[in-house]
Amino acid sequence: MSETKPDFWESLSPAKAAVVTVVVPSLYLLALVVAWFSSKHFGFGFRPLVYVGVIVGLSGVVLWIVAMVQLGKSLAVLPGGDRLVTQGVYRYLRHPVYLGIDMTLFGLFLAVGTTSGMIYFFVVVLPLNIIRSRLEEKALLRKFGKPYETYRQQTWF
Fold it and tell me: Could you give the CA distance from residue 129 to residue 137 in angstroms, rounded to a whole number?
């Protein structure tokens, strides 16, 4: 009988899991600090980009909130829900919270016109959400098996 190797999330000690639970959301908050203290050139000098940024950002906030509400008790920084959520926005998207975060911060940085914010988005936020989604998918596949694989094939990011 072979032992299965624990995935990334399962291998975290309680102390490390607590650190991840604090650090990851702090990286999103730090994005707001970057935007606040960065030099601003609204819409990068092209006024329509301000409006595009606001629309993208507000759409992201709505997606983010709706996704968190639909997750209900399954909402956590570390994956570990007891059920597979496949209704609402999850019918189409596997990671609407991450997409909502990305849209919100990208829209904010676009509207504000902050180069350092855009760099932070592409160097920290986007890779963080891609890594998180991949690790989460491995954990969910391990936990739910075939039903998750079927769900994954029927949805986008």
Answer: 12
Residue 120 lies in a domain: yes
Strand spans (E) along 8-157: none
Show the CA angle centred on residue 40, arms to residues 34 and 46, nearest 5°.
130
For the entire predicted model, the pTM comes to 0.82
* Overall size of the chain counted in residues: 157
Report the CATH number that the domain containing residue 78 is assigned in CATH: 1.20.120.1630
Domain count, the chain: 1
Each residue's pLDDT tens digit, 73-125: 766 655 556 788 889 999 999 999 999 999 999 999 999 999 999 999 999 99
- Coil, strand or helix: which one is 36? helix
Q: What angle do CA 23, 157, 113 make, to 5 degrees?
A: 60
